[in-house]
Amino acid sequence: MSAIRGFGAYCGTVEIHAKEGFTVRNYEINQSPNAVGKVTKRWYSFQGTNRMSLRIDTPKLTAPVVENTLI
Fold first, then answer.
1. How many of the other CB atoms lie within 10 Å of CB of 23?
2. What pLDDT was estimated at residue 51?
3. Which pLDDT score, from 0 to 100, does residue 21 have?
4. Model-wide pTM > 0.85
5. Per the count of CB atoms within 10 A, which of 11, 40, 42, 43 is most buried?
6. Which residues 6+ apart lie within 8 Å of 64 measured at CB?
């Protein structure tokens, strides 16, 4: 079990809403069975030619987390 800590994997479909600046992911396979069938929305932006950030809406975060951005 310790080998999987810190590891995240899933399979699913991704919709890109370019004009609005967000993606929608529909999980079909996930290491967490409770996530299968769930849909998540992530806001994205580009910083330069080789950097992208994904951000979670604040209301979707669980306290004490107040911001979550992956770059």
1. 16
2. 93
3. 94
4. no
5. 42
6. none
Report yes or no: 68 and 61 within 8 Å, Cβ to Cβ: yes
Other CB atoms closer than 10 Å to residue 42's CB: what's the count?
Answer: 19
Give the integer Cα–Cα distance in Å for 36 and 39.
9
Question: Which amino acid, 68?
Answer: N
The answer to whether the Cα torsion of 57, 62, 65, 70 is positive or negative is: negative
**Helix, strand, coil % (nearest 5) of the chain?**
15, 45, 45
Q: The tokens of 35 are what? A: 């996530």
- What strands lie across the sheet with 52-55, from one edge to the other? 10-17, 22-30, 39-46, 52-55, 69-70
